[in-house]
Amino acid sequence: MKNSIDISTAFSFKGEVHTPSATLDLDSHMESSGSLPPFHALLASTNDIDTYSYLYEVMEMAAVQYSNAKGMAAEFLKDGAFDQAGFETAWRENKITQLLQPIARDYLGIDDIDNHTDLRAALLQAYKLGREAQS
Fold this sequence. Notes:
5 helices, 3-stranded antiparallel beta sheet, 50% helix, 19% strand
């Protein structure tokens, strides 16, 4: 299932109320850069707000509201707060697990690595150690 979330904010500038909003495809952002970009900048770009304007500076002071999270993102939306760092970590681990699943199937006959938490943890650790050794 795709991971998405609705973001919005509300603020006043020069006597006018602004309520920019956007629906974010979290997977596409994670795939392209490995992390989520600043949400205020995303709100600005999707709502035609120049990031070099006073309007943007005022918008940056307003809190971002989160709603309608779908996919794994729903696990990280609690009481209107989105745990961005937690989501990013879980998304990366999920991506790695997808890479490890064929190894578990081909070598160990395990069709769903998520049902074997110890094995999943061991394979994730081995993957991370291999990545660190390449650095």
